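Subject: sequence -> structure tokens, single chain

Hey, anyone have a minute? Need the predicted structure for the following. Not urgent.
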Amino acid sequence: MVNTLELLDKKDLLKKEAESFINDAQKEERKLIDSEQSRYNEITKEIEQIDNQIREIEKANHRNYKKTNKTSMEKFSLLKAINDVVNNRPLDERSQEVINAGIEEFRKSGQNASGQIVLPIEERATIQATIATAGQENVAEDKLGILEHLRNNLVLIKAGATHLTGLSGSVSIPVYSGSNVF
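Reply:
Had a minute. Here:
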């Protein structure tokens, strides 16, 4: 079975091939010849199929993530995991499952995970509050990503920078190089 990274690699190679056709035609100041145009159309269809495959894999992974990791997130203790790592003790099964889910999220996004504790940012467990006269009570909360609140408070975001998410591979952003300097 093909995984997402292999599909992204194939998509990137196809994009480069299509760009080479366009760049060659632009350099020579001409339109694409029939063979180039037909290959370009084939590449476009292949890229569309790859995008569909990636979406299906992500949907399946998301369904599986919700089913399998909900129970492990409920029993996961970040403080216990940190304590185990600091004291060179092996992580328990639940902690290792959560960390593996975090590493998998990084891998799917095309990034390398570093460090001993890598948390998934998809969702967190229900918050529990202890009441003095009773046991633990569930606290209603929106299940947002852990990092969302941190992203909203980044200094550059507050200064007006745009935070781009969901990017992978090579991204080109046009830069203004006009003569008006403020």
